Amino acid sequence: MQLRYTINRSAKRRKLTITVERDRSVVVHAPDGISDEKIEQIVSSKRQWIYEKLNHPQKYQNLPHAPGKELVSGESAFYLGRQYRLEIVKTGLSEIQFSHRFLIPDMQAAKQTDALREWYIGKAKEKIVPRVKHHASQLGVDVAKVKIVDNRFRWGSCTMNDNVNFNWRLIKAPMFVIDYVIVHELAHLIENNHTPRFWNIVRAQAPTMEKAKTWLKENGQLLEQML
């Protein structure tokens, strides 16, 4: 079977790494100077590891039913691990409000979807960024910048410049899951690879790590839908 992968080169990168994203795409992150032939040799040497990752149960698979629901009164949407009822308000409301339910202005469906997405992004900035600063202080690491990003197949990432990025969709998950993802990325500032030491650091700072991993395994795909 031919192994397909994409190559992302960077002048700042010194070491080649391979990631298998949740959508089962294989990405090679490589320094500028390395040839395609050398990359192919390295990927070939890692084939068994890559196939193990591709078959991991947490990787993205198509849902058994048609994804997504409509933004109509009576439907529900996730926020911090719980589902809340949607109510379309025909008059007197110019933006989404939340009070134990989502109050959404009556407008075109596309605009409603955009408004809900922007609401989620705003809440992610409001709630995730302070938690990053808290955990960074507890771990004794310095973070250059915290960004809330739109990266459908990764919950978080840590860059070579000590920036940490988090998927806005995380705000739909419970706070113990959000804390786990934050600690996971911050731990990479101490230990780059997933070594036993790395997992010990994560577990010490996020004692509900296994519970969080299980929650993401069972519910992660639902977070990728708008509703």
From TrEMBL:
Residues 14-219 form the YgjP-like metallopeptidase domain. InterPro entries: UTP_pyrophosphatase-like, YgjP-like_metallopeptidase. PANTHER family: UNCHARACTERIZED PROTEIN YGJP (PTHR30399), UTP PYROPHOSPHATASE (PTHR30399:SF1). This is SprT family zinc-dependent metalloprotease. It holds the Pfam family YgjP-like. One of its GO terms (molecular function) is metallopeptidase activity. Keywords: Hydrolase, Metalloprotease, Protease. It comes from the Bacteria.
